[in-house]
Amino acid sequence: MQQVSGMRFALVGAILIAISFGLARFAFGLFVPQIRADLALSANTIGTIAALPLISFVLISLVAPLVTKYFGARNTTVLSATFAVVGLALVSQARGPILLVIGVVACGICTGLMMPALTAAMQALVDRSIHGRVSSVMNAGTSIGVALSVPAVVLLVGAWRYAYFSFTLFAIVGVFLAWYLIPSVSRVRPSDAAPPPKITVRQSWRLFSLFLFAFAMGFIASAYWTFGPDLAINLGALSSQQSGWLWLALGVAGLGGAIISDLADRNNPAITHALMLMMLTTSLTLLAASPGQIYLAVFSAMIFGLAYMSLTGLYLMTAIRLLPGHLSVGPVLAFVACALGQAVGSPIIGLFVGKFGYADSFAMFAAAGIFISLLSPLYPGRTELESGAPEDESGLQAAYDYQLQNDEGEPLEMNTPEEAEQDELKLPDKSNKENQ
């Protein structure tokens, strides 16, 4: 099967992630102040509603690999974008909490389907040695979507329904992009090829450790995602237009997460994890301490965006490395853990805000972040590289090998790193591989 440029696929994936994760999921926090005021919702209620798309995301993620398997990458991506259209349209027409709930749940289903579908297409089309890097770039598309939501706040002051209607138009474009740019492909696997390696006990423990770290980070980040702009407006007396600059700064700074997560994965993931989590904690503290200072508030958003996107990218790449041969499971695990943390954290921060106020609530979440950062030496970031194997034998390359042919036209398989080393001399060079 002919492979495509990793950069081209990453850019297409980043656009679709921007629509699904950026606009359909994370842009909601930017409009919480307007939605609360217009629909007369309490902090506890809005915190619960903010958790619903995360719950639907987790539930649909459990079956998303099967949906992708039976419907194909293109159809599943189109289905995901269609749920974004429906969800965003319903939110734009919400006159009460019921329609709002249905809309955000549909948006959560959209995000749950998108990444597994893109991952399936990536496995079939993109060179295996750069799967982790391509996934990291696609993950940064969330920042693009978050940044795109800002002009709607600035230009449509107080008109959150019109803003969500404009997001619906973007999602419609996403449907057509998915149909025309995501090929209807499946991974080529010889019938007699060995199955993916079984997950060992050691891998299971390290995966559980990764799950706990990702869950904790999602829990802590839920405070900023759900109530960041709301805090700036209600506690700092900033206008809706000024609060929009927070999300713009968050989105722009988050683009650097693709680079940092890649570098961290290759160098010292544990130290980078501790540093990024401390930065995330600092952003909460800084916003709660100086919400009325627009420059400090924007700076806190930059710190949060860079830290959050770096951490999610790092979790994604670590999951891929920890599960060689199970790329449909690794990315889902990382995103589910973060989403579960946010789903649990959103109603809790809403309850805390109603009982203790914004500043004390953010301070408590920041304290939890400091504690988790101290546990970063336990982060399972170097598992597959401890043996000193090069990248293409460490999980990003060894897992998904496709049927190749030698000069005589006979099929050549490479199922494990050991077999790959034995067959190295028989494999065609990279240029011939790309032409086949």
From TrEMBL:
Topology with respect to the bilayer: Multi-pass membrane protein
Compositionally biased residues, Acidic residues: 407-422
Keywords, ordered alphabetically: Cell membrane, Membrane, Transmembrane, Transmembrane helix
Compartments reported by the entry: Cell membrane
Organism superkingdom: Bacteria
Primary localisation category: membrane
A GO cellular-component term linked to this record: plasma membrane
Spans through the membrane: 39-64, 76-92, 98-125, 137-157, 163-182, 207-225, 245-263, 270-288, 294-317, 329-352, 358-379
Listed name of the protein: MFS transporter
Residues annotated as domain Major facilitator superfamily (MFS) profile: 6-384
SUPFAM superfamilies: MFS general substrate transporter
InterPro entries: MFS, MFS_dom, MFS_Efflux_Transporters, MFS_trans_sf
Organism: Pseudidiomarina aquimaris
Region described as Disordered: 407-436
Claim: DNA-binding is one of the keywords in the record: no
Bias (Basic and acidic residues): 423-436
